[in-house]
Amino acid sequence: MNNIRKPLLRVLEGENLNPPPIWLMRQAGRYLPEYRALRSQAKDFLSLCYNPELASEVTLQPITRFGFDGAILFADILLLPHALGVDVKFVENVGPRLSPIQTQEQLYRLKDKEEIHETLNPVYETIERILAKLPPQVTLIGFAGSPWTVATYLIAGKGETGQVTSKEFIVRNPELFNQIISLLTDATIEYLSRQIEAGVEVVKLFDSWAGSLEGLYFDNYVTKPNAHIITTLKHKFPHIPIIAFPKGSGMKLPSFVSNLNVDCLALDQNVSLDIVDKFLPSINCIQGNLNPQTLVSGKERLESETQNILKSCYNFPHIFNLGHGILPTTPIQHVEKLVKLIREI
Ligand code: CP3
After folding, report:
1. CATH code, domain carrying 313
2. pTM for this structure?
3. Is pLDDT above 90 for 100?
4. 3-class SS at 258?
5. 3-state DSSP assignment of residue 90
6. Ligand 1: which of 77, 92, 143, 154 to mutate, most ligand atoms within 8 Å of CB?
7. Ligand 1, closest atom to CA 328?
């Protein structure tokens, strides 16, 4: 089958398909027994990410089980800081822990952007292995974290509600913060370029904490770095569609979109689909935005919210997804039911 016929790629090019293609953020993860089984074979989460044989298998697990239209590379947004020389650990039941970068000396000690590939080479090999086994109608999505979101982990050394440490850091050390954003921006372009060269067909930028910045800070550290990455990638790889996910941006979305040459805007569950026509002139399609908690709960609510999304998006190109990552407590039957609901419209 020719690439151009893949449903996800057709919608990313602006074609309206009903039913829409579907995939779910964090679709390979702990809610799947087959994931938990493979995960226990690896020493820790990072070893799983850097093991091409296991990581490619994990990527394909949700495709085999549910028949999604998109496969997302199994990796993590924190592999990039790890490849830059930051100490990164995923502590069981606690979350990621990093050696914080808060001084000029600590920043100087990091690697140059060209050196990240030494660590990230297994990720590119994972991509090649996935492609060898990917069903012909399924699209492979690569990804990275956007600079602000990755910077929040780098500066605080962990995930933090409200990203307070990083917001204070911007005010106290504006020059150093600019250097951090600039390094992350350039390294992200390097990383995504290699993912594309290895064979991913779409890239997605996760700006999960975009919503915590306001005004000029939002323009400078959310919109500008995303715009720079997208412009550079579009110049190098004009045929590769890009999805942006500035989670929590709410009322700032119209300004974000008008400053970016992006193919698809991924929406979180707090965005009303009634305002989507505001963005449509400048992008090809919308992705989203079922509440992950609704998928955990199931029942009639799952049906009604899914129908509402499908109805709101009936007249324009849409990729069905959640508004954020699938929760580990999600029952598999609810995912099966969701796929059935969508495919049977
Ligand atoms: O979507 C996919 O299936 C592809 C793989 C993927 C993972 N993380 C695997 C993962 C992707 C796209 C990510 C992105 C990611 N990672 C983001 C952006 C998206 C978002 O959710 O906002 C962020 C902020 C991270 C950082 C991260 N990784 C955190 C905060 C955690 C710990 C919390 C948690 O859910 O466990 C991780 C770990 C992680 N990344 C897991 C998976 C499957 C769970 C690890 C395990 O097996 O225990």
Report:
1. 3.20.20.210
2. 0.96
3. yes
4. helix
5. strand
6. 77
7. 35
